[in-house]
Amino acid sequence: MAHDHHHIPDQAGDRRLVLSILANVLLTIAQIVGGIVSGSLALVADALHNLNDAASLGVALIARRIARRPADKVRTFGYRKAEVIGALINTTTLIIVGLYLVYKAVARFLEPEPIDGWIVIIVAGIALIVDVVTALLTFSMAKNNINIKAAFIHNVTDALGSLVVIIVGVLILLFQWYVADLIATLLLAGYILYQGYRLMRESIHILMDSVPGDIDLDGVVERMVTVAGVVGVHHVHIRHIAEHHPALEAHVVVQEGCEETERVKADLKELLHDEFGIGHSTLELESPEGCCGGRGPCAS
Q1: What is the spatial distance between Cα 298 and Cα 287, in angstroms, rounded to a whole number?
Q2: Contacts (Cβ under 8 Å, ≥6 apart) of 61
Q3: By the 8 A CB rule, do 133 and 16 touch?
Q4: Contact 154, 62 (CB under 8 A)
Q5: Packing angle of the helix pair 41-67, 117-142 (nearest 10 deg)
Q6: Given 103, 249, 263, 296, which is the most exposed site by the fewest CB atoms within 10 A?
Q7: Could you say which architecture CATH assigns to the domain 217-294?
Q8: How far apart are CA 209 and CA 121, in angstroms?
Q9: Dist. CA 133–CA 275, nearest whole Å
Q10: Could you read off the pLDDT of 78-87 as tens digits, one per residue?
Q11: Which one, of 236, 222, 242, 232, lies nearest residue 281 by Cα?
Q12: Domain boundaries along the sequence of the chain
């Protein structure tokens, strides 16, 4: 289960994020003006989501730069988890925006207002183009990076939101279905909340030092004990140092009188790296009679 990731050069990736931020700020201004003039809550909702996108891209950019800092005496594992923290911040704002949109939709249902369908269609059409371009700018970077993925999800939901708003404008023009604006807002809010929850759960999973989702702890232990000279493995801990950088700590019981402890350790590290993608492993080798300080079996 070896891991191989291809990354866009840092400076090129940063430029893409800056361009995406500028595009979203300009689009937000246009959508807010269009939403106020037309009276469309769905358009204003999409504008708020775009503003949140600009902020999320800014957070992603800052976290990306912090993550490049080398390890120091305070953070000996480095700053790479900064990107996971950035993702958590962005997913939290996603959920807040989703809940706010639900509130606004309910308030608008109680006090309906007229909506200009043509303005809605024109502004949402422009927004759709910008959203698609912004999503394309971050797509390749989002594949293996939860920080950029959170920002990318913002952009994708915006593109979907703009498409829905265009449909709403058409329905208002053709059939005067003003309720479509409220339904669209609730659908957008639901999708935003779902994506926010999903990415938040993934971010928390990493920050809580949980076992990576693509690694089976029992399977790792079972493979480790198949290495020649290994009697048992215990006190096993697997976590993320950063996204895509799992680390393992374990106590390994070797055969009594085994003179090839360094060979055993090298074989274990090679197995962990090649089969499970664990490039950072700390192994404490013990003898059967001396492990655990003589307090019970160590092979469990």
Answers
A1: 10
A2: 14, 17, 18, 21
A3: no
A4: no
A5: 20
A6: 296
A7: 2-Layer Sandwich (3.30)
A8: 46
A9: 38
A10: 888 888 888 8
A11: 236
A12: 10-207, 217-294
Q: CA distances (Å), 59 to each of 32, 56, 185, in order?
A: 22, 5, 25
CA distance 286 to 251: 7
How many angstroms separate the CA atoms of 14 and 270, rounded? 35
Residues linked to residue 104 through DSSP beta bridges, in sequence order: none
Q: Which CATH number fits domain 10-207: 1.20.1510.10, 3.40.50.920, 3.40.50.740, 3.50.50.60?
A: 1.20.1510.10
Residuewise pLDDT in 10s, the chain (300 residues): 444 444 445 666 777 778 878 877 887 787 788 777 777 766 676 677 677 777 777 887 888 888 888 888 888 878 888 888 888 888 888 788 788 878 877 877 776 666 666 777 787 788 788 778 777 777 766 666 776 777 777 677 777 777 777 887 788 778 877 777 778 778 878 888 888 888 889 889 888 989 998 899 999 999 999 999 999 999 999 998 877 789 999 999 998 766 788 899 999 999 999 999 998 899 999 888 655 444 444 444
Which residue's structure tokens are 């996108």? 53
pLDDT tens, residue by residue, 226-276? 999 999 999 999 998 877 789 999 999 998 766 788 899 999 999 999 999
